[in-house]
Amino acid sequence: MIRKQVYIKPHHDALLKKRACELGVTEAELIRRAIEAHLATGPLIRKDISAWEREKEFILSRVKKGDQEKGRQWRREELYER
Q1: Which CATH class name applies to 1-43?
Q2: Virtual CA dihedral for 33, 36, 40, 46, nearest 10 degrees?
């Protein structure tokens, strides 16, 4: 095994101690299990913030156009006439 030193917040330490005691395992074993469980979920999908910015611009442009348009230009019945 390879030794690693990590820093955790006090409330994480309390949770870790409590759960390790409940499961009857060491804190180190619980950390190893958590790492395995996290890595087993598959690759993380990176969020493309620029995609959201483009979408936001599109939405705002549609909202601005909405002020110019006076309601729908079609009737529901027209959808079924085709």
Answers
A1: mainly alpha
A2: 110
